Records
---
Amino acid sequence: QVHLVESGGGLVQAGGSLRLSCTASGRIPSGYVLSWFRQTPGSERTLVATFRWPTGGTHYEDSANGRFTVSRDGVKNTVFLQMNNLDPVDTAVYYCAVGTNTLGPYDYWGQGTQVTVSS
């Protein structure tokens, strides 16, 4: 069983930065992925970035590439999503999730953290 808790969301102006954290308790099997998703009202959750556990292979969707970076603090079992040059279109609830592969399935989800980017 894996329990995920996100934090770090908030309100930021366009062009600003935020760092989201996803802290995992419980054992994440080697080779699994911890991914960040986002969701806006009325839309499905979409993948943003993926971190392969524990070695750190990463994958970014086009929406994130060049602006977002995913990394891990191995001591604290936390994965970060550093988001730079934010745009109002990045406004969403951001979730972290653990699954077997980038395309899923995902077995564990956090509760989400709201990111709001003002213009």
Note: The chain has no helices and eleven strands.
---
Amino acid sequence: QVQLAESGGGLVQPGASLRLSCVASERTTAAMAWFRQAPGYEREFLGAIKWSGGKLSDPGRFFIFADNAKNTVYLQMNALKPEDTAVYYCAAGATLISRPEAYLFWGQGTQVTVSS
């Protein structure tokens, strides 16, 4: 059972940057991913990365990277917009994939609110 703990969320103004962290209790699963979910919307894939290298993500305002020594995956978010407001989750799974149902373990989530 992999335990995941997200942190770094909060209230920020439009245009700001924010970095979320996800600490894994162990690196027994190959891949880590970030998702977000806003009220009334489905869970949205933001990116995934393998501890051994390799990444699945879209170029843009969000950037995922890992620090293996700290068992930590980060989500760097830039130029935040009000529509980025959501609960952000990290997840652990066996492969790089965008479907949330493929991930075995989930954190509790961290709220990000973008508002002036």
Note: The two ends are 40 Å apart (CA to CA).
